[in-house]
Amino acid sequence: MPKKKSLTVHRVLILLLAYVMLAVSGGVAASVLFVPGVFAANNAAKAVIPSLKVENVDFDVTSLPQKSIMYANDGKTVIATFYNQNRIVVPLSKISKTMQQAVVAREDRRFWTHSGVDVQGVMRAFVQTYLLDRDQQGGSSLTQQYVKNVLLMQAIEDDDPIAQYHATEDTIARKVREMLISVQMEKKYSKPEILQGYLNIAQFGVNTYGVETAAQRYFSVSAADLNVVQSATIAAITKNPSQFDPLIEANQKASQNQRDTVLKLMLDQQFITQKQYDEAVNTPLKDTLKPQSVNVGCQDTGDYAFFCDFVVHRIQNSKEFGKTRAERSKLLQEGGLKIVTTLDVDANAQMMEAARNAIAPNDSSGMEIAMASVKPGTGEVLGFGLNRYYDATSAADSDPTKSGQNFAVDLADGGGSGWTIGSSWKPINLIAWMESGHSINDNLQTTTNYPTTDFACDRYSGGADSWSVQNALGAGTVNPESPFLGLVRSHNTTQATMGTIMKLCKVADTATEVGYHDAATGETIDKTSQFTPSMMIGSVNVSPLTMASIYAVYASNGVQCNPIALKKVTDRDGNDLKVPSANCHQAVDKDIIQTLAYTLNQGVVRADGAGGTFQLNNGRKSFGKTGTSDDLAISGGSFIPNQIATFAVAGDAQNPYSNRMSNMTINGVYANVWDGSMIPAPAVRNFLNAYADKKQLPIDNDYGTPVSKYTTTGKYYGIGGRAYTVPQQSTNNNQSTTQGQGQNQTESQGNQTGGTTTTPEANQNGNQNQTQNQGGQTNSGQ
């Protein structure tokens, strides 16, 4: 055993001198320390306060790091909390009197009379620790403890290990520093302000800071409502927060003993009566606990987690919340923000259910489905649906049912590099066509091979190659065909001819106009490697959220909004912070959108339409477009006008080229070729039906009325705008002879509610033998 140090005269003198220094730093003459009774000690301290100086010390006792809370769009449903230190700051007026008394009784009985340093406490600590050689005593006042906590907190925030060491080192130098600062604190702040600061900064358990957080965590009440027993329990914890945390079962006996010690101190100092004391100490601690769970970050927030993660990324990426990502993260963790998001809890829950019903999380195929919904005309993201469970830990690496990535959003927002969506892109082409001054009933000559130079424009030159394109299942082409029928039937060759007439730059400009950008880079289509003719049939990298926001343009009479996740953010003082704007504006002419919506509806209700699986319940007029990108991914989007727009993509988000959607069983169903009508469209339909029922959404069957300007009997166009030639006999697969192309038919196309709309259509010769509504075509499908 180490040799016990003898208490030499020299050592006593050194220690005595040190303690005299401490006392003097508190304003007390050395001789006063040892006067029997230590009478008037604190009055002496007060008398010399003006002569004590500590330069450059300015602690704000009312501004401490505190947790931020994220809410759903109702401003009440808590999604998650964020903090470095789990703290809710409250004023002293919202802390019960018994809680204030319990802390003073336990930590600093002379708090209201000393001037920052309790000289009697210092003397007692000196005698006990050094003269009597007993356990080390602290002797720190509440003010000193507050100073120590602030210095440590600042060192941690500054990531300064040296400062952290000096804030906690067991040395005379640290004590002197704390005492000097404490005296200065009491010159600047009142006693209630200092007590308020201490009660908000002190640690009251494992990762529990401040009495408001402790009150909620242990008893599910606010600090204002703490009773005597609860106050004593919390006040007892600070001596050793990890060993006296009452929620840790192994600690409960020690925690109760400490609580009873505080109660005795409160009795001795006449804060409580004998009756209150007797009742309190006879109450088992475990019977008083009513713990409240707190979800920290996004990890443990259940099906809110993917949306939560999306919001966190949006805050970290938005300059409104700080100049750097580090500043934004600190604001989230320490700023005491109230974050009201756009999350609709019903939409999110129902989408999650729809996604997992479409493809079970543990399905042997390993396929994923990702869904997103947006409120048209606002940009508000309502929620996500994924057939995965959120897990950002390493556990997700070995569990295919879990993921820390939200494949419904862009890479920058915590998602992936995007999906190829196939024919779900095609409504963009029809908008571009009408914006170019054309009718949807123009007659177009089509083929299966297009020189890329036919698509050339100022940003795309084409080359010596050509683009080979067919309709679904290698069905060749229909010649001629209108853009209207080309979208209804989802024919690729018609899209190609439209591109040669409009040129690729016009399609790219329209895509940007409605809100398209690359999921991996955030760039517009003409800045990416996907800026090729095949983009006309959806060979792009895009997130379901971006596509949902594009379909929201179709659902809001042409109003384009950037997707937003935040409705309102307030800081700890209740001040509104600026949030990213949706920048809603009229992007597309209303008449064009109405004509497009009519076409999308016809794709649902016509026998030769590719969107029949989008049909909604209760006679509600339905709109939608499916897509199949080879056997890599399948997609579908739909909307309820002015209410909600939803888009879904299914496939293997991480390994699409090695895990293809062909000759595969998914959710117990085998298919040699999967297309957008088979998983995404039913998932979207089922969700929209459930959401409409839950929200009792009104039925608006007037939406989607075609405008004659864009449906008038059209012109004849050859490929690339060259002279139109009437083919005498088709040599393409699945074609019948097409004669009489100059004759256009007008037929009455009604919707499912019994109403009719008359619109001219291009002739339909050559359609009889056409295979329809089957996916599998390269970069395309239904």
Strand content: 5-15%
Q: Which structural category fits the helices and strands?
A: alpha+beta
Instruction: Write down the overall geometry.
Output: elongated
User: What's the architecture of one domain, going by CATH?
Assistant: Orthogonal Bundle
Mean pLDDT: 83
Helix count, DSSP H or I runs of 4 or more residues: 24
Keywords: Carboxypeptidase, Cell shape, Cell wall biogenesis/degradation, Glycosyltransferase, Hydrolase, Multifunctional enzyme, Peptidoglycan synthesis, Protease, Transferase
InterPro entries: Beta-lactam/transpept-like, Glyco_trans_51, Glycosyltr_51/Transpeptidase, Lysozyme-like_dom_sf, PBP_transglycosylase, PCN-bd_Tpept
GO molecular function: penicillin binding; peptidoglycan glycosyltransferase activity; serine-type D-Ala-D-Ala carboxypeptidase activity
Protein name: Carboxypeptidase
Structural commentary:
- The protein has 782 residues and is an alpha+beta fold.
- The chain has a domain at 83-288: Biosynthetic peptidoglycan transglycosylase-like (Penicillin binding protein transpeptidase fold, Orthogonal Bundle).
- Helices cover 35% and strands 12% of the residues.
- The protein is built from 24 helices and 22 strands.
- It has a five-stranded mixed beta sheet. The protein has a five-stranded antiparallel beta sheet with strand order 5-4-17-16-15. A two-stranded parallel ribbon has the order 6-7.
- The chain starts with 8 loop residues before the first helix and ends in a 21-residue tail after the last strand.
- Keywords: Carboxypeptidase, Cell shape, Cell wall biogenesis/degradation, Glycosyltransferase, Hydrolase, Multifunctional enzyme, Peptidoglycan synthesis, Protease, Transferase.
- Residues 77-266 form the Glycosyl transferase family domain.
